[in-house]
Amino acid sequence: MSTSIHLGPGQVAASLALVALAAAVSFWRKADLERDIGIATVRSFVQLTAIGYAIKLIFEADTLWLVFGLLAVMVVFGALTARSRAKKVPGAFGPLLIALATAGATTLGLVVALGVFEPTARYLVPVGGMVIGNAMTASAVALNRLGDEMADSRAKIEATLALGATGREAAAPFVRRALRSGMITLVDSTKTTGLIFFPGTMVGMLLAGASPTDAVRLQLILLYALLGSVAIAGLVATSLAYRNFFTPAQQLRELESGSG
Amino acid sequence: MLFELSKVSLTRGDRRVLDSVSAAIPPGATAIVGPSGAGKSTLLRLLNRLADPDTGTIAYRGQPLEQYEPLALRREVSLVPQLPALLEGTVESNLRYAAGLAGKELDSEGCLRLAGLDSGFAERDVAKLSVGEQQRVMLGRALAQEPAVLLLDEPTSALDHAARDAIEATLAELRRELEISIVLVSHDPEQARRLGDWVVRLEDGRTVEAGPIEEVLA
Questions:
Q1: Alpha-carbon torsion B182, B188, B193, B199, what sign?
Q2: Is A69 helix (H, G, I), strand (E, B) or coil?
Q3: How many H helices and E strands in chain B?
Q4: By C-alpha distance, which of A43, A206, A199 is closest to A130?
């Protein structure tokens, strides 16, 4: 069995036929997504090509500083992207940055400490990318939900503050729901993995010629690592972000769009 | 004096909600009256520091409000908002939560009786109560903290006449049974007359009158 796969530019170009199909469906059914499909195609090509070259350089240099540099850039861009989904949370960038950095550092630190992966660029870059990417999605969903809950429940939160509860106590039910919604997608997809869909890593390994046993084992390791990372990211993001809704005197801040 | 407000102003967005309000609120029952949008509810929220004024000072029992620890102040000066906003769960779990925050032993039956509810309500799910019943649970929940002052924001505005009369009777009973002061926001001068012995009248964020009820609302 071959252990590597070689794809030329022609094969990538051929797969654009499916993009054309997607654009045609959108045009035919007036979904108004043709422009977005175009942007997504160009961006994916440019971004993946650039990151491909960056990874190649990092693999060749094989120094951990470059790996940490790349992961730090991912954390910053991840936090910026997630912030755009958490518009109702004041000052969301700081909590998101800390959440993604903590999730990445803890998860990678643990898998290396437990001897699952070697601390080399070949493992840390792709695994770090997946960990930070999933942490970003989970914390964006969690803070999006937190913003909605806090906006919809102002009366209830203020009524609880009026009893002398702290902001933390008054926000607790909403923080809990936000954390849950951030984690639930990955928990559900982990439940159905292998039954309803094949996860990307496993598909990639099988296509690249790895044995199904190896593909399954690596996929399981990644799924379990991702569960840990989304839990950490959701926990840190919600635990820090809810504070921005309250003043030091435990008052609910007036928000620009709030009913006040 | 229970509360003394001096030149209190508050702006929200581009609206001046309170404009240099000065007023004294004695112990007993005070009604804050005025038309809708006069700043009554905002004023009430300042009294237990759910919000702070932009300028001006408020004193409680002779001391500036900022000198009180906000959480302790809110347990002593308890605000019941205009619309019921209970925590999910039973009536008793809501009462217990409030009593726990104030470090008080819960007398569930006593709180419910003071709020005009019988003890059978304790195990009821708050989501299945009428608005009037929920409003009574809000009152009972505040009483579970054994506050010295109750701040009531339009306590009967969401209720029909029968429920309104019942809540008013409950409040009158409360004053007879407990040494508690009440500051009540109402848009209804008749209600102020029935429940208050002092009145502060606001219009467009300004105090227009303040004094004994029989003089101001004569």
A1: positive
A2: helix
A3: 8, 10
A4: A199
DSSP B118-172: -GGGTTSBGGGS-HHHHHHHHHHHHHTT--SEEEEESTTTTS-HHHHHHHHHHHH
Mean pLDDT for B141-146 is 92
pLDDT in tens, A199-212: 888 888 888 888 99
Rg over alpha carbons for chain A, rounded to the nearest Å, is 21
pTM: 0.85
Nearest CA in chain B to A171: B87
What are the residues whose beta carbons fall under 8 Å from the beta carbon of A131, sequence distance 6 or more?
A: A103, A104, A107, A108, A225, A226, A229
Interface test with B, best of A156, A161, A163, A259 (most B CBs within 10 A): A163
- Interface test mutation site (partner A, options B46, B74, B80, B135, max chain A beta carbons within 10 A): B74
**Of B54, B58, B56, which is closest to residue B13 (Cα–Cα)?**
B54
Tokens of A117: 């992966």
Task: Determine, for residues B98 and A250 on separate chains, whether the beta-carbon distance falls below 8 Å.
Answer: no
| Burial group, residue B127, by CB count within 10 angstroms (0-12, 13-18, 19+) | exposed
Q: Strands B29-33, B77-80: parallel, antiparallel or unpaired by DSSP?
A: unpaired
- Chain B residue closest in CA terms to A257: B13
Q: What are B57-67's pLDDT values in tens digits? A: 999 999 999 99
- Tallying the residues shown for chain A, one arrives at 260
Taking any CB pair shorter than 8 Å as contact, residues of chain A touching chain B are: 155-156, 158-166, 169, 173, 249-252, 254, 260
- Specify the DSSP element, H or E, that contains B8: strand B3-12
Mean pLDDT of A85-102: 96
pLDDT digits (tens, 9 = 90+) for B192-210: 888 889 999 999 999 998 8
Model confidence pLDDT, tens digit, residues B120-132: 999 999 999 998 8
* Pairwise CA distance, residues B92 & A241, whole Å: 31
A to B CB pairs, distance under 8 Å? 61
Segment A13-69, tens digit of pLDDT: 999 999 999 999 999 999 999 999 999 999 999 999 998 998 899 889 878 899 999
Q: How far apart are CA B39 and CA A21, in angstroms?
A: 60
Encoded amino acid at A111, one letter: V
Spell out which residues of chain B touch residue A254, defining contact as CB-CB under 8 Å: 12
Whole-number average pLDDT of chain B: 91
CB pair distance less than 8 Å for A159 and B51? no
**Strand, helix or coil for residue A256:** coil
Rounded distance, CA B218 to CA B216, Å? 6
Instruction: Please say whether the beta carbons of A170 and B70 come within 8 A.
Output: no
Using an 8 Å CB-CB cutoff, list chain B residues near A159.
81, 85-86, 138
